[in-house]
Amino acid sequence: MLLKTSLRSFFAHKGRMALSLIAVVLSVAFVSGTLVFSNTATSTFDKLFAATASDVSVQPPKPDDDEEQQAAAKPPTVPVALAQQIAGLPGVKTAVGQVMVHNAILVDPATNKLVGPTQGAPTLLGNWTDTPRNALHITSGHAPQGPGELVLDADTAKKAKLGLGDHVRVDNSGGKHDFTIAGIATFTTTNPGAALAFLDTDTAQRVLLGEQAYTSVEAFGDGSRGNDQLKADAVAKVGAGYQVKTAAEQKDENTKQVGSGLDFMKYAMLGFAFVSAIVGAFLIVNTFSMLVAQRTREIGLLRAIGGSRRQVNRSVLVEALILGVLGSTIGVGAGLGVAVGLIKLMNAIGMDLNAADLQIGPDVFVAGYSLGIVVTLVAAFFPARRASRISPMAALRDHGTPAEGRANVIRTVVGLLLTAGGAALLVLGAGADKAATGGQYLGLGVVLTLVGFVVIGPLLASALIRVLGAVLPALFGPSGKLAQRNAMRNPRRTGATAAALMIGLALVIASSVFSSSAVTSASAQIDRSVGVDFIIQGGRTEVTPEMQDIVRRTPGIDHVTTQKFFTAKLQLPDGGKAKNDLTAVPPTFFGSDFHPSLDAGSVDSIERGSLGIGAAFAKDHNLKVGDQVGVDYGKGRTQTLPVGAVFKKGELFGDGSFVAMDTMAKVVPAAEQPPVWTFFAKASAGTDVAKTLTALEDGLKQFPQLSIKDQAGYKEMVQSQIDTLLYLIYGLVALSITVAVLGVVNTLALSVVERTREIGLLRAIGLSRRQLRRMIRLESVVIALFGAVLGTGLGLAWGVTAQRVLRDQGLGTLSVPAGTIGVTLAASVVIGLFAALIPAFRAGRMNVLAAIATD
């Protein structure tokens, strides 16, 4: 009987449930689509790694922590003889020496453009080998047979419009090497997005390694021994110094590396999907609250004929359950479309995934149905509770829900306490000395202020809408006055509707404040501390002496400054040890090119043989100017240096440590020094910087991997990187704002139905259709503006606090984007007008007499 009543009620109001259903569908679709995409990508790479991994791989010794930083141009290798040793082990069918490096690039000499991806996936070069599990097979041409031939993967060849007989150049630290494409190879499973090129083994060793060696030895068994036994035999043969990994271990390691790249996108999308689900919950609350109000007499009759409170409560919750199950089912199906869209997006940027091989695991259904059903039931609980408290006589007589004056007082007190507590945490976060502590306060403060604003929404609605709508009667006459009063009529409903929009806009404003502060801070630091005119970055390859010489010889260039990065282990005066990034620089670095701010000491002391350290490092380890610190560069290369300068926190070099190039060179031979990845150039006095930049670009055009920027261009690059992240956030937040707009539409639509008789009476006493539609539109605009004002306030509080938390991490300048705030408020007006289109149209088409006769 309960289910029958709930089903009849649900389908009797299916039109009023439609927008709530859409909200559930969108949230579930985003979650299920993200999971399907993640599962498909993971499965694709799992198949690739499982199909191509050798049974046992013998790799160079794992570098010590002290040596990880060297980032040497030459990759670690194993001797050629190791392949013969592994091949002679029992149970090994074949052992192949492999060369594979990622520190070289491919260039099309005809266009002087890079061949292969410029970001994301790497460009890999190695030797062509025939193994039982090759990732690629040659589909046209032949394997490289001499020092001038190269095999290119089919996907890269297609994108670069290259074919058999075309020329390709390989650039690395050893110089430029010309090759002819002799073969095109196609992946046997999937292309992870990388560009792959293969040379014959002798050429690969000479060009890519500079010696007769391999980067690994790959062994394949004959089936007589398990991989674990093969690994044990290999370790016993070659010793424990080498890394020996089974196929399963190789697969796990590769999967972990790929998964770390996909996890950011996965969790970001899931996070915003849950935000949209929360926003959708407000829509569902409003839907069921209004449906309960409209069915007050019906509920009273049910109670009068013997229905219990529990039955009424369950009846409403069963309707919510139906909505949740239906929305989740459609959402899971729609999620497949979302997954296909994400796969096509990945394919567009070079990752080859097959949309026909979607992996739909149990987690997709569990997450989708759990989200849809739980959110719907939780959102419907409070309306259901209010419905169950309607007494039969009050419902039949007054057509109203029971008064909840005490509940409103409690709600107001709780909301004020939560908001005040959240605000206090934000203040504590803004004043915290450590970013980690401030971040914790910020996170908790965001949650409490958000919940507090939601709880206190009705109180804020009564006050703010009175202010926001104050000009409406003067500007729009009766329509404006009615719109203001309608928006204030049910503060709880208005607060819930506006809260949905508030959340999305708060995220937009907070992100805008953060990004604007980051760009402004970076620009200010560059203006304040950077004296060089040009920044040249090597990208994925190191900077060669040839590149530096070209820059030095360019007319208008005064000098060139390089830098070399280490990760050194420092021996502290108190006996402790600490790892720290260390940069070795020449005299011109601090002499004329960069002007750091200091807390103590002198920057000139660095050139005289002292150590420069960041303020945070100095504070964490109780270091001061004059303290003696032992510096271990790795491989036993050590020296003791006094602290000569402490850089100010939050400045360009606030977290860095520096040593003079000459000081470092006293203990680290040139052959062991890391390569240069970035260098700088200073223009001569009176030189036209723009013309010199053009001359640099012309001189270095043979090196397409280089990024050449003047200060203005570097600022633009920093801003574009931040903007890319910001636009991603905006795109994800758009989902929650879409759901919020649906909430405004739903509230107005149900409100029109609820006020059918009232609308009929207004029309009967002379309100025109135009005035009626205007009243609905203005009511919608006021509600949207109310949500925008709350969202702006929250977003500003969150964004400003985030900037203060990170003030010592480079965000030293607060920048409030007034333009974004203005656009947000203007957009809220547009949102309000858009949301009112259908409800206003329906209200205007009502028959006056039929509306008045409505019960």
Automatic annotation (TrEMBL):
<dbReference type="Pfam" id="PF12704">
    <property type="entry name" value="MacB_PCD"/>
</dbReference>
<feature type="domain" description="MacB-like periplasmic core">
    <location>
        <begin position="494"/>
        <end position="697"/>
    </location>
</feature>
<feature type="region of interest" description="Disordered">
    <location>
        <begin position="56"/>
        <end position="76"/>
    </location>
</feature>
<keyword id="KW-1133">Transmembrane helix</keyword>
<feature type="domain" description="ABC3 transporter permease C-terminal">
    <location>
        <begin position="732"/>
        <end position="847"/>
    </location>
</feature>
<feature type="transmembrane region" description="Helical">
    <location>
        <begin position="725"/>
        <end position="753"/>
    </location>
</feature>
<feature type="transmembrane region" description="Helical">
    <location>
        <begin position="498"/>
        <end position="519"/>
    </location>
</feature>
<keyword id="KW-0812">Transmembrane</keyword>
<feature type="transmembrane region" description="Helical">
    <location>
        <begin position="364"/>
        <end position="384"/>
    </location>
</feature>
<dbReference type="InterPro" id="IPR025857">
    <property type="entry name" value="MacB_PCD"/>
</dbReference>
<feature type="domain" description="ABC3 transporter permease C-terminal">
    <location>
        <begin position="272"/>
        <end position="392"/>
    </location>
</feature>
<feature type="transmembrane region" description="Helical">
    <location>
        <begin position="413"/>
        <end position="432"/>
    </location>
</feature>
<comment type="similarity">
    <text>Belongs to the ABC-4 integral membrane protein family.</text>
</comment>
<feature type="domain" description="MacB-like periplasmic core">
    <location>
        <begin position="18"/>
        <end position="212"/>
    </location>
</feature>
<feature type="transmembrane region" description="Helical">
    <location>
        <begin position="818"/>
        <end position="838"/>
    </location>
</feature>
<feature type="transmembrane region" description="Helical">
    <location>
        <begin position="444"/>
        <end position="477"/>
    </location>
</feature>
<keyword id="KW-1003">Cell membrane</keyword>
<dbReference type="InterPro" id="IPR050250">
    <property type="entry name" value="Macrolide_Exporter_MacB"/>
</dbReference>
<feature type="transmembrane region" description="Helical">
    <location>
        <begin position="267"/>
        <end position="293"/>
    </location>
</feature>
<dbReference type="Pfam" id="PF02687">
    <property type="entry name" value="FtsX"/>
</dbReference>
<dbReference type="GO" id="GO:0022857">
    <property type="term" value="F:transmembrane transporter activity"/>
</dbReference>
<protein>
    <submittedName>
        <fullName>Membrane protein</fullName>
    </submittedName>
</protein>
<dbReference type="GO" id="GO:0005886">
    <property type="term" value="C:plasma membrane"/>
</dbReference>
<feature type="transmembrane region" description="Helical">
    <location>
        <begin position="316"/>
        <end position="344"/>
    </location>
</feature>
<keyword id="KW-0472">Membrane</keyword>
<feature type="transmembrane region" description="Helical">
    <location>
        <begin position="778"/>
        <end position="798"/>
    </location>
</feature>
<dbReference type="InterPro" id="IPR003838">
    <property type="entry name" value="ABC3_permease_C"/>
</dbReference>
